[in-house]
Specification:
The complex is a heterodimer of chains A (439) and B (181). With 439 residues, chain A is an all-alpha fold. Chain A is 80% helix and 0% strand. Chain A is built from 22 helices and no strands. Chain B has 181 residues and is mostly helical. Chain B is built from four helices and no strands. In chain B, helix 1 runs antiparallel to helix 4, helix 2 packs parallel to helix 4 and helix 3 packs antiparallel against helix 4. The longest helix of chain B has 37 residues. The radius of gyration of chain B is 20 Å and the shape is elongated. Classes of the chains: A mainly alpha (439), B mainly alpha (181). The interface between A and B is large, with 67 and 66 residues.
Chain lengths: 439, 181
């Protein structure tokens, strides 16, 4: 069996195990470890296990992940979400569909201190759902906008998945975050536009809220300064190189933790809940990282990624077609798999292929641009059936809304996502401009 | 995607102990992680304001966060927090799914046990060879002191979960849901 055949066979076997409910990290471990042993024997595999977990878990560049997750947990307990939604509501609420717009705005602001989509959707849902209901918003629009708004959590830096992409592809985290900034803002405005058009078509689904006087608008800004201060410190610190990403995440965790204590009187019980929440999310990610490391070690031995890259690079296929094919595959995978697993599974194979194609950008530009587009497309899976996790979590909070309604409510946002992906592909400068300007 | 409501599980003292241990270990890991964050904040503040960073802060944070991550693993498994693809098996009966999950639990237990066993040997190696961190000379084996029991506990949690599923045909208590982001 040649390397590429063995690689494909093991890859297919791993996908089969995953389809049969084996935890994704374990399936990667079994397939990667098994394949590795088939090539170089069991003894080196077993010997490698003596220290591989130690080196992976204790690597400084990965430490940023549990710290960002802890920061997100504290942020959800800090009571900031109320102020952020309130401010967005004061400025946007009087428009048709305004309360839903405020939910999007709140999600975008919260996304600036939280790197996870589910946490953003769930936290903002707690605050915004009662308001949306009070103003008689339709279940579809209310749950749809919150589920879609949640995806801003991971698009607007900090973003756990971008950190992992940067590590996998040896890109600079600061530049990745910079690159995601404008696409993130664009996403928020795209969602606002989607709501504006939607309520023009169906005005009864999202009535305008009351107008807030200017004094109240200005006062509402006071409530968002702690969040903006933390965002500026964390992200600004990374951009300017004052902090390493790990240091910035430590500051973020400490800052949001202090806020939770000061504003919400978080005690030992609350702290324990935050630690356990961060623990569960971190363990879930690191189990997959551990499996992915074994699997990628095996893939490298088969030379499959390199051979595939040579094959596609030399085939004369139009680069754009290859890119679109990958994105379509992401959309399909997104129907059954979570975004992190998709990135870890595909990037080691896709990335060399992308880098072997000529998109008229510098190698670094190509890497950053592809990372942001992949992130956007992968996140679409969070709001599409059958396993749109964001939709599930919001729907479970709004018990009176049928699931089908929620998925219908997501539709306008999916259209907005589609438009944005086309824009990002057509104009790489949307992604790369800020990196070039500040980087 | 919550676990299907199952009949009340029979009394399960072993499971209760494993759940407590896992949660306690996770909280301990969380405190290590939070401690690492505080240490970093103090060190960076010192570096910029007083040109006096804590020497070796990076390696301490690495050790703390690494041990923390390992300590989180059993708790995540207790909570059923590890990601699975349940799309293709959604149509099968709950009984069949529980059987499949039991099987995967055994595979996971084998992997975790293998890692625990090898890491115990690896830890002894680092102890014998006096492996130390670069700046402070902290012995590396202290990290293994957390990681080896963590993988061991993970192995036990998986075995216990598989046993409950096989013997009683129900999800073990404490399982919150099967899928997460």
């Amino acid at each position: 069996m040649t390397g590429i055949e063995l690689g494909l066979a093991v890859f297919a076997g791993m996908l089969a195990l995953m389809a049969l409910r084996m935890p994704i990290g374990v399936a990667m471990m079994v397939a990667g470890g098994g394949g590795f042993a088939l090539i170089v024997g069991w003894t080196p595999l077993i010997a490698q296990l003596k220290s591989s977990a130690y080196y992976l878990f204790s690597s400084y560049s990965l430490t940023v992940i549990p710290l960002f997750l802890l920061m997100g947990q504290f942020a959800t307990k800090s009571g900031l979400s109320r102020g952020l939604f309130g401010a967005a509501n004061a400025w946007l609420g009087h428009r048709p569909g305004g309360i839903a717009m405020a939910a999007i705005g709140g999600c975008g602001l919260f996304g600036a201190i939280c790197g996870s989509s589910l946490a953003t959707a769930a936290t903002m849902g707690q605050v915004a759902l009662p308001e949306l209901k009070r103003y008689h918003y339709s279940g579809a629009l209310a749950t749809g906008s919150l589920a879609a708004g949640g995806t801003l959590g991971i698009l607007i830096p900090p973003s756990v998945i971008l950190v992992i992409y940067a590590i996998l592809t040896e890109q600079n985290i600061a530049k990745m975050f910079l690159a995601a900034f404008i696409p993130g803002i664009l996403a928020a405005f795209g969602y606002l536009a989607a709501i504006a058009i939607y309520v023009r078509l169906y005005p009864e689904e999202g009535p305008a809220g009351p107008e807030h006087p200017l004094s109240e608008k200005l006062r509402s800004l006071i409530d968002i300064w702690p969040a903006m201060l933390i965002f500026t410190l964390v992200i600004g610190g990374i951009y300017t190189g004052v902090f390493t990403p790990t240091e910035a995440a430590a500051f973020g965790a400490a800052g949001t933790g202090l806020l939770a204590v000061a504003k919400e009187r978080m005690g030992w019980q609350g702290l324990k809940e935050c630690l356990l929440g961060a623990a569960e999310a971190s363990a879930m990610i690191f189990l997959i990282l551990f499996g992915a490391e074994l699997f990628n070690g095996f893939l490298a031995l088969t030379r499959m990624p390199d051979l595939l890259a040579e094959l596609i690079g030399g085939s004369g296929l139009p680069p754009l077609m290859v890119l679109v094919a990958m994105l379509v595959l992401y959309l399909a995978l997104g129907c059954v798999m979570d975004s992190l697993s998709m990135i870890l599974l595909t990037i080691p194979i896709f990335f060399p292929v992308i880098m072997a194609l000529d998109f008229g950008l510098t190698p670094e530009g190509t890497a950053i641009w592809f990372g942001v587009i992949a992130l956007v497309v992968v996140e679409v899976g969070l709001i599409t059936p059958p396993v749109g996790m964001n939709v599930f979590i919001i729907n479970s909070m709004a018990r009176d809304v049928p699931m089908l309604e929620s998925f219908r409510g997501v539709l306008p946002f999916l259209i907005s996502d589609g438009v944005r992906v086309v824009l990002l592909i057509a104009f790489p400068s949307i992604t790369l401009w800020l990196v070039g300007f500040l980087g | 995607m919550t676990a299907p409501s199952s009949p009340a599980a029979p009394s399960d003292p072993v499971g209760a102990v494993l759940r407590r241990l896992s949660a306690a270990l996770a909280v301990l890991g969380g405190l290590l992680l939070a401690g690492g964050a505080v240490l970093t904040v103090v060190s960076v503040t010192g570096r910029y304001l007083f040109s006096a960073p804590i020497s070796g802060d990076v390696e301490l944070v690495e050790l703390a966060a690494g041990a923390a991550v390992a300590a989180f693993l059993p708790y995540c498994q207790v909570r059923g927090g590890n990601v699975i693809v349940d799309f293709f098996t959604a149509a099968t009966s709950a009984r069949a799914r529980i059987r499949i999950d039991a099987l995967h639990g055994l595979v996971f237990a084998f992997c975790a046990g293998l890692v625990a066993w090898q890491m115990a040997l690896g830890g002894i190696d680092t102890y014998a060879s006096n492996d130390e961190t670069m700046v402070l000379g902290v012995p590396v084996w202290i990290s293994y002191v957390v990681m080896v029991p963590a993988f061991g506990l993970l192995c036990l949690v998986c075995l216990h979960g598989a046993a409950i599923r096989l013997r009683h045909g129900v999800e073990p208590a404490g399982t919150a849901g099967a899928t997460a982001e």
